[in-house]
Write a sequence for this structure.
């Protein structure tokens, strides 16, 4: 559920804590992984959960010193030797077109995440409204109405 530019801001949660925001107890329920933070729209630093295997692969790319990366005219300090932002988004779209003959773009992954996560939480017993609020918080929206757009 990350935005393309948020990939460039990944940090372990023990290195950079998330901003204080209300969060449901069910946030990240049913999933296992390592907690990281990302900086999103408006500068909000929020916690995200990266599956264990992916977190191990991410840590294998850790840089000794952060590098300055520019994406769409914005400067980021990236702590991992991975792609993100518009460059990654374009690469994803090209790979999707080549493999599948179509692409909904990298942002389509956020839509898929929201839809999959809603189903997962509801199967675990949460009501639609509670699941929606949880997914909204996980995606950094904190407004259910925005998250509902991702469920169409």
């Amino acid at each position: 559920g990350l935005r393309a530019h948020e990939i460039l801001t990944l940090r372990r949660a023990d290195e950079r804590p998330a901003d204080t925001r209300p969060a449901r107890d069910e946030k990240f329920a049913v999933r296992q992984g390592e907690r990281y933070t990302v900086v999103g729209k408006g500068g909000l630093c929020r916690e995200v959960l990266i599956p264990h295997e992916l977190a191990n692969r991410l840590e294998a790319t850790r840089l000794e010193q952060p590098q300055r990366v520019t994406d769409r005219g914005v400067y980021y300090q990236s702590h991992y030797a991975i792609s993100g932002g518009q460059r990654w988004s374009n690469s994803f779209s090209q790979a999707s077109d080549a493999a599948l003959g179509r692409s909904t773009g990298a942002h389509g992954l956020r839509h898929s995440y929201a839809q999959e996560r809603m189903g997962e939480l509801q199967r675990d017993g949460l009501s639609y409204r509670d699941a929606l609020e949880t997914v909204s918080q996980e995606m950094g929206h904190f407004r259910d109405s925005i998250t509902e757009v991702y469920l169409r």
